[in-house]
């Protein structure tokens, strides 16, 4: 007998009608002879009564500690588990639920965005020995001090994969309102193609570069433990998209696209220090202080400009601009920049696929496609499976359509 972990988001749990679709997916697995661990999110979105954002709206969060906010926001998932149990039990199914501690997901003490440290599944396995369905609250764990923690945005995806690892599940199904993973966002690119499968590495790049189908941390964890993820629709019984390891893709002789996806984001900014003193290790000190400020640098470029001077350019998230400017001001006497230029309204378009490393002219094709359509490329970054171009924010959607047509049209 197999155990399937199924994760259902707020669009699945929000109402009696949507939960009926959710239960059909659970029952299908039971009828196939499997047992199900269902990981559920809070019911709906703001302003549904028990949604996470609704719960936050009824308090003054400035007056609560992060630990208290975690206690509040974890309540929505707990309510979902009990609602789902009551309804499935009334339908005649043998169902159990687990508490926060029984989840077995232990984390550090970084409330509101905790990192999983260990995971064990004996409580869930014990309940599976006497029930056909075990319902778990998503998005949460507990610290070594026994305090409730939450896992940040997309945390229920991460919960589901962690539980899958702990109980050695056959598969983790991630349900949402879309029926799989596409080569681009269908709302932006109407001709986007649904993928039957995608590698962990490609999915991780898509998730980190703007695609919102799967949380990147859940993909990392699945890759580490070789857990198969099946991304599929709550409202459509057809197969979705499997996220697999490269070895399994090659073993099954699947025909893999050169490009698996094109995605974009619109929340970048560029900071340029002009005429920095090249005689000191300015960049090294700058990065050390930026790291201390908990800011990630997405792209870095350093160029000597003569006269013992160099220019340093950084691409960062636009919300981090104030922190980086403060760091630069603190180092002004060491760096001695002639001026600092902050350019907002930067976006990114990324072309992702395992075929990039084995096919010549890929960067040239990306660059020429954008420039020939009057989209100026300000900075770039490349890896074996990712070509990212930083462009004007207003051009990001147009760029995705043009690149999809160029590579997959």
From TrEMBL:
Listed SUPFAM superfamilies: ACT-like, Carbamate kinase-like
Transmembrane residue ranges: none
Keyword Transcription belongs to the record: no
Keywords: Amino-acid biosynthesis, ATP-binding, Diaminopimelate biosynthesis, Kinase, Lysine biosynthesis, Nucleotide-binding, Transferase
Catalysed reaction, written as an equation: L-aspartate + ATP = 4-phospho-L-aspartate + ADP
Positions contributing to substrate binding: 77
Domain named Aspartokinase ACT: residues: 349-407
Family membership noted in the UniProt record: Belongs to the aspartokinase family.
Role noted for this protein: Catalyzes the phosphorylation of the beta-carboxyl group of aspartic acid with ATP to yield 4-phospho-L-aspartate, which is involved in the branched biosynthetic pathway leading to the biosynthesis of amino acids threonine, isoleucine and methionine.
PANTHER family, per the entry: ASPARTATE KINASE, ASPARTOKINASE
Protein name (database record): Aspartokinase
Native species: Longibaculum muris
Lineage: Bacteria, Bacillati, Bacillota, Erysipelotrichia, Erysipelotrichales
